[in-house]
Amino acid sequence: MVVQGLCSKKLKALITLTTDFGTADWFVGVMKGVITGIAPQTQVTDLTHAVPAGDVRAGAFVLAAAYRFFPRGTIHVVVVDPGVGSQRKAIVVQTRNYRFIGPDNGVLSWALRQEKITAVRSIENTRYFLQPVSRTFHGRDVFAPVAAHLSAGILLARLGPAQADFIRLPWNAARREKNSIRGEIVYIDRFGNCITNIEDAMLARLGTQRALEVLRGRKRLCPVADYYQAVPAGQPVAVSGSSGFLEIAVNRSHAASILRLRIGDPIKVRCR
Amino acid sequence: MVVQGLCSKKLKALITLTTDFGTADWFVGVMKGVITGIAPQTQVTDLTHAVPAGDVRAGAFVLAAAYRFFPRGTIHVVVVDPGVGSQRKAIVVQTRNYRFIGPDNGVLSWALRQEKITAVRSIENTRYFLQPVSRTFHGRDVFAPVAAHLSAGILLARLGPAQADFIRLPWNAARREKNSIRGEIVYIDRFGNCITNIEDAMLARLGTQRALEVLRGRKRLCPVADYYQAVPAGQPVAVSGSSGFLEIAVNRSHAASILRLRIGDPIKVRCR
Amino acid sequence: MVVQGLCSKKLKALITLTTDFGTADWFVGVMKGVITGIAPQTQVTDLTHAVPAGDVRAGAFVLAAAYRFFPRGTIHVVVVDPGVGSQRKAIVVQTRNYRFIGPDNGVLSWALRQEKITAVRSIENTRYFLQPVSRTFHGRDVFAPVAAHLSAGILLARLGPAQADFIRLPWNAARREKNSIRGEIVYIDRFGNCITNIEDAMLARLGTQRALEVLRGRKRLCPVADYYQAVPAGQPVAVSGSSGFLEIAVNRSHAASILRLRIGDPIKVRCR
C-alpha cells in the first residue's frame, strides 16, 4: 500500500535532543533549524524537553533509560546546563554504538555507565560553532551545530583535544541485605509511577516475583506482581518496569500522589 | 528558491502516533527510535500525546477527528491502553485507505465507523516485537515495532490470525426531535471550545444556520452563527466546527470555563 | 559511523510552524498530515505551539527571535489568528531569504522588520485550499496546504494578487537618554528570564557591560554581567540574551516570579 522511495533501505542519520528548554519558547525549534542548515538529511527526534529546569540528575536518568532504543550511530545531544556560559566544559563521548554530546556536568554519565567508551573529546574548536556564540544558549550555538557537523561526517578529533575522563554523577545503587533489598525512588513519570533504583536482575536473585513485597519504613506498601491489573483499580502494586527497574504504581491511578512518594524516598523489598 | 531532492515526488511512508504518554518522559521518543531502527525512511508524526491518562474515549475522538487528513497509506498507531500487560488483545485494522494499530479496547472504533474495513488481524506474532517484551510499555515493545515492520512492507497476515470483529465504543448519537436536536458535549479543546455530537448535516436538515439557537436545559445559551466574530468578544456562539460537529465557543475566550460546560453535558438546538 | 543516503547533500524543503494551537488536541498533527499529502519530501519543524491563545504580539516575538536560524528557503507559517473566519486577510510575504505565511494581523511584522521584502501577496486562490474550507481552522484548510504547494514549487503569484503592504504591530523601541536607556519587558521565557526591548548594540554604545546596572523605578535591580553565574545562585543579573536583547535573569531560578516582573514593565539601564 505504501510505495517507498529510493532511500528506503539506507541507514538514517539521527540526532536525539533531550533538554530542559520546554516547548513553550522557540529554543528547541531553532536548534533543529541550525541542525538542518548544516546536515539537511539528518532526522532530529525529541526525547523530551521537559526535564525540570537545571535538573542534571533527571536529565541523566531520561537519557540512560532511553538512549539504547535508538539505532546504532545515533547522536544523543543533552542540554541540561545550569552552568552555561561559565567555565564548565562541553564534551563529546564516543562509544561502540553511539555518540553523546553535552555539557561535562554529569548529565551523560548514567547512560555512559552502560556503554563501552572509545573516545572522549573536549569540544573547543569554535570553527564548528554558530558565531557569535551567545553566553546563554549553547544548545543553539555549540551543541546543535557540533552534533550536525558530526552527523554530516567530520572526524571527532576535529572538535577538540582528547580528555582523560568526564564528570560522573554518583548513582545510589540499591543494596542487598540478608533477605531484602534497600533502594529508593529515582524518577517519577507522567503516570505517577515511581521508578526505583532496584534492577530486575537483583530482584530475581532475591526470590520469585510473587513471593516479594515492598515496604516503606516498617509498613507493607504493596505486593510485587506481573502487571498493574494484578491488583484492583486504586490499589498499589510494584512491577518490573520498562526501563529495567522495579516501579511502584497504582492500578489506573497516580501512585506518587496517592502514596505521597517522592524522589529520594527509601523503600525496601523483602520475601513475604 | 527551494531545490528539491530526487525523492521529491515519491509517496512518503508515514506513521502517526496518538498516546496518553505525555511528553515529559522519554516514552514517545523511544517509540520513534524503535520505528526508525526498523523503517529508517518512515516519517513519524505526532497527533497528540496529551490524551488524558487511560481515557479511551478521548483517544477515540482525537483519532476520529484527525485520521482522514493524512495521505492514503498512513499507518495510525494509538496507544491509550489502561489494560496493558493483561489479557486485552492488540489489533491491526486495514481499511481502504489506512491501517490502524492499537489495543482492542475501542480506541480505534470511532475512526473505523467512517471507514470501509478490509481486514482485521490480532497482533500475536512475537517475531515482530521488541524482545524482551515489557509488561508495561507495549507502545515501545509491540505497537511501534509492528507499525514499523508494516511500514517497511511485511504482509498484514504475518502479524497474527484474522479476527472477526473488534471492540466498539458506544457513540451517543444526537437525536432529532420535532423541531429540535438533542445532543451532548463530547470533547473540549485547548481553546475551551466545546465540541458536540451534532453533525453539520443533521443541523442543516433542521433549518438554516441563522434560524437556529442552542439551549441548555430550558435556557437559551447562544445563537448558531457562521464564525466566532458574529458575536461580540466574550459572548457565546455555536459554529460548525472543523471536525464536522457543532461547537459551542465564546468569542476570544474559553467557553468551557465561562459557561461551565463539561463532557457529557446535554444541549439542545432548536429553531428560533 | 553513519552511512548517509543519496539525498545527503541536497537542500531540504522546510516548513516551520508557530501557532497557539497547543499540543493537547490534533490540530498541529493534521496540519502536518495535510502538508505531507501535498509535499511528501518537505520537513516540518515546530517552532512552538504554546503561543498564548490569540496573543498576536507573543507570536510575532517568537517568530522574530527564531526565523533567521533556519536555512535559506525555509517557509515560516504562523497561525495566531483570533480573527479566523472573519474578514481578515491571509498573506504570504517573500523576502530575500525566506517566505512567511500567516493571517495579515501583524503576527509576521516583527520578523519582517529585519528582512528585505521582495513580494507581498494576498492568499485568495481557493484552488490551493483544502475543500471545504472550515470557518474555524484555516491552519489546516488554508495555511498548511498553501505552504505545502509553495514548498512543492508553485509560483507565489498563483496564490493571489499583489498587496501593497501588510499590517504592522507597533514596536516600542527602547529610548536612549543622557546616561541611560529606558526599555521594557517584552517576553518571558520558560526559565522565567525576562527579555527586554534593549538591543545589544544600543547597550554597547552606553558603556562597557561591567559598568552598567539595571533599575526598576528608582531602585537598583541588578548588575549587567557576562553570564548568569556572575552572581550567586538566587541573585538577579542582566545578560545579553541569545535573541540579541538584554535579559533579566536570576541565577538558577525564575526571575519573573522572584522579581515579580511582567510583560510591559518598564526598566532602565544606566552607568554605575
Descriptive overview:
The structure is a homotrimer of 272-residue chains. Chain A is α+β, with helices and mostly antiparallel strands. Chain A has helices at 27-38, 56-66, 109-112, 138-152, 200-206, 255-259, and strands spanning 14-19, 43-48, 75-79, 90-95, 99-103, 117-122, 175-176, 180-188, 194-199, 212-216, 219-223, 236-240, 245-250, 266-271. In chain A, helix 1 (27-38) packs parallel to helix 4 (138-152). Chains A and B meet through strand 1, strand 2 and helix 2 of A and helix 1 and helix 4 of B.
Topology, element by element:
The structure is a homotrimer of 272-residue chains.
Chain A lengths: L13 E6 L7 H12 L4 E6 L7 H11 L8 E5 L10 E6 L3 E5 L5 H4 L4 E6 L15 H15 L22 E2 L3 E9 L5 E6 H7 L5 E5 L2 E5 L12 E5 L4 E6 L4 H5 L6 E6 L1
Parallel strand pairs in A: 1-2, 1-3, 3-5
Antiparallel strand pairs in A: 4-5, 4-6, 7-8, 8-9, 8-14, 9-13, 10-11, 10-14, 12-13
Helix pairs in contact in A: 1-4
